[in-house]
Design a protein that fits this description.
heterodimer; A: alpha+beta; three-stranded antiparallel β-sheet; 3 strands; elongated; B: mainly alpha; 1% strand
């Protein structure tokens, strides 16, 4: 995260999509997120692993009836980081700041 | 994006997103999630209608009981009974319907009221369990008061109302716990 709030974790589209979807709900099932974000399961899996590694996402295995399900939740830390990132991006788009996204 | 398989370097994952695109995508996707997790307006309206009718019935019954006597006692008790059952029906049925609907959609709202958590195998929040029991007790208490102030001086009607309300609240908590207990047993 740079001084402007720009977070490299959200710099790629799949991670941004996953975080955006989970920011709009409490928790969502893996397949529901994949369908809504139009990401393939492997791509979604990589994105969730990256977000989970940063502590932004919580993965929980559960059941619906007898079927195993994977539920994804944005942590409070992740929610704050994502909002901070969006604010930074918004500021960048409006030209009110000069971001220096570090790679 | 689709069909990228399990390649070591996923182009979709590596591609950096443009700021303007990021904002548009984030807003659209977050909105879609909110829509998927929300309760339909007609259902919320139906719950509100039953809730208002229940409150009016309880208020009317209480006023009748305080001001009237004789034949009014029966009408007052009936009004409060209908109100109590309606109120409890909203509290218990609402989360069940939402839970089942969300369970089918795979998305849960940020503030799940009660059973949606149980629908995915989570324990219901303690606050929700306590609220359910308190609502049961409140309704039972009103019923007890109605029976206690009966012109015959008998507490029997009120006692039945209290027992019925307690049974209802216990059943509501048990219903919410069953999926969680089943999930916990499977996980062992």
């Amino acid at each position: 995260v740079n001084a402007a709030g720009w977070d490299e974790i959200f710099a790629t589209l799949p991670r941004l999509k996953v975080a955006a979807y989970l920011s709009g709900c409490g928790q969502a099932e893996f397949a529901a997120v994949a369908a809504a974000t139009e990401l393939s399961p492997p791509t979604l899996s990589k994105a969730t692993t990256a977000l989970e590694g940063a502590g932004y996402l919580e993965v929980r295995k559960g059941y619906v009836g007898r079927r195993p399900r994977t539920w994804l939740t944005l942590t409070d830390h992740g929610r704050r980081a994502f909002q901070g990132h969006l604010d930074a991006v918004n500021a960048l788009v409006q030209g009110s700041t000069t971001p220096t996204p570090s790679r | 994006m689709a069909g990228s398989g399990m390649r070591e370097h996923d182009p979709a994952e590596a591609e950096r997103v443009q700021p303007a695109v990021a904002l548009q995508e984030a807003a659209a996707i977050a909105e879609a999630a909110k829509r998927a997790a929300s309760t339909p307006r007609w259902l919320g309206g139906a719950w509100l209608a039953v809730f208002v009718a229940a409150m009016v019935a309880i208020a009317a019954g209480s006023v009748m009981r305080i001001s009237g006597s004789g034949v009014w006692s029966g009408a007052a008790a009936t009004a409060v009974l209908f109100g109590g059952v309606g109120l409890f029906a909203v509290w218990v049925s609402g989360p069940i319907v939402v839970g089942l609907r969300l369970r089918r959609r795979g998305v849960l709202p940020r503030r799940d009221p009660f059973l949606p958590s149980a629908a995915v195998g989570e324990m219901p929040r303690r606050r929700s369990v306590v609220t359910t029991v308190l609502i049961g007790l409140a309704i039972g208490g009103i019923g007890y008061w109605m029976g206690a102030t009966d012109s015959s001086g008998s507490h029997r009607g009120g006692s039945w109302a209290l027992i019925g309300a307690l049974l209802l609240s216990t059943a509501a908590v048990a219903i919410s716990l069953l999926p969680s207990l089943r999930a916990a047993r499977r996980a062992e």
